[in-house]
Design a protein that fits this description.
The chain is mainly alpha-helical. It is about 55% helix and about 5% strand. The protein has two domains: about 10-120, Orthogonal Bundle (DNA polymerase, domain 1), CATH 1.10.150; about 145-320, Intergrase catalytic core (hpI Integrase, Chain A).
């Protein structure tokens, strides 16, 4: 490279702004094939960072950006914030707080953006390489018990259009572990009824085959053959349709689950909990993590091993329910009142070493 072109390149690096780089970055990710949801996430998170810099009257030039600016920004996210700021559809909500998971996503976005800037030659090293990831709380997920699954299904009337669709949806999600976005995307053309498998497009537009059990197959066939409405257009081939024949949205699934949670009394119910329940139940009845990873669509075993930890929680819950000593009916009441025993001076207690 000539000295002149190197000088021009250096001048460009000194003058280029963060908004311009964000535009380049999102374009490169779009060309790479990232999903629309991923691109929206990048744009939203980096857009908030740019607004923070503007509000603090900070220069938007890359040459004046430091890791201290990023740390101050993350610190601001951990305090009181205005949610949905700059959102085109949802009004801004001041006086809110972000969850640790949301803050964590903002940090990973900044670090990925910083790495890309470095790879493109705009910086000598990633600016935010040392930006610390905040610790995430270890939340224990309480999956649905067999009794709760039965209760869930018992409040659904499978002899109506709405009930048949919901019954088939819940059974399929618990049996095959589908995400909400995958449920609404299942197509009739991708169903292999004879083999009991179907094709879905998961995260990152990854295609995979998912198995279903005999019960799920029967319930789904009943909905399709008896209750599924006529599609509104010839190109609509989705399995689950609205009453007027259009594909359901992910938001529709969310609202359906909220109503089902209220009706069943299982307040913690949401679509992804059915996926967690599927993973735990699959391992509990003898399934292995390798096959679970494959039909769940996990690219690495890391997330699949998470279900082994959930299985441990389920085992402990089952023990509390079916404790051997509790089942024998042994009651501590036969030992009398503890305070009275202490006053009388229990001989066993008096003979024990200090």
């Amino acid at each position: 490279m000539s000295h002149k072109s190197e000088r021009l390149r250096k001048q460009e690096r000194m003058e280029i702004t963060i908004p311009t780089l964000v535009e380049y970055y999102v374009t490169s990710k779009r060309v790479k094939g990232c999903s629309k949801k991923t691109l929206i996430g990048f744009t939203s998170n980096l857009g908030r960072f740019i607004r923070y810099l503007k509000q603090n009257q900070h220069s938007l030039k890359l040459a004046e950006l430091t890791i201290h600016d990023a740390r101050a920004y993350i610190s601001s996210l951990q305090g009181t914030v205005t949610k949905y700021e700059g959102h085109t559809m949802t009004p801004a909500k001041p006086g809110c707080t972000f969850s640790p998971q949301t803050v964590h996503k903002h940090v990973t976005t900044l670090r990925a953006f910083s790495n890309w800037i470095h790879q493109e030659g705009y910086t000598k090293q990633p600016l935010f390489e040392m930006l610390e990831l905040p610790k995430l709380p270890q939340i224990k997920i309480e999956v649905l018990s067999p009794e709760e699954i039965q209760r869930l299904l018992s409040v659904i009337n499978p002899n109506t259009f709405m009930g048949s669709r919901l019954y088939a949806m819940v059974v399929l999600m618990i049996d095959s572990g589908l995400r909400a976005g995958e449920v609404v995307g299942v197509k009739l053309a991708n169903m292999d009824w004879e083999r009991g498998v179907f094709k879905v497009f998961g995260k990152g537009s990854k295609e995979r085959f998912v198995p279903m059990g005999g019960t799920a197959k029967q319930v789904l066939l009943r909905y399709v053959q008896v209750f599924r409405p006529k599609p509104a257009r010839p190109d609509v081939d989705n399995v689950f349709l609205s009453v007027d024949g259009y594909p359901l949205s992910v938001n529709a699934i969310t609202q359906i689950m909220k109503r089902l949670a209220k009706k069943s009394g299982i307040k913690r119910l949401h679509a992804h909990l059915l996926r967690h329940t599927c993973g735990v139940q699959y391992l509990m009845v003898g399934g292995d993590t390798k096959s679970l990873q494959m039909f769940f669509g996990h690219s690495t075993p890391f997330m699949t091993h998470h279900y082994e930890q959930l299985t441990d929680e389920h085992v402990m819950a089952q023990h509390r329910k079916y404790s051997p000593i509790d089942a024998l009916g042994v009651s501590p009441r036969r030992f009398g009142n503890g305070k009275q025993a202490a006053r009388k001076g229990d001989s066993w207690t008096r003979t024990q070493p200090n």
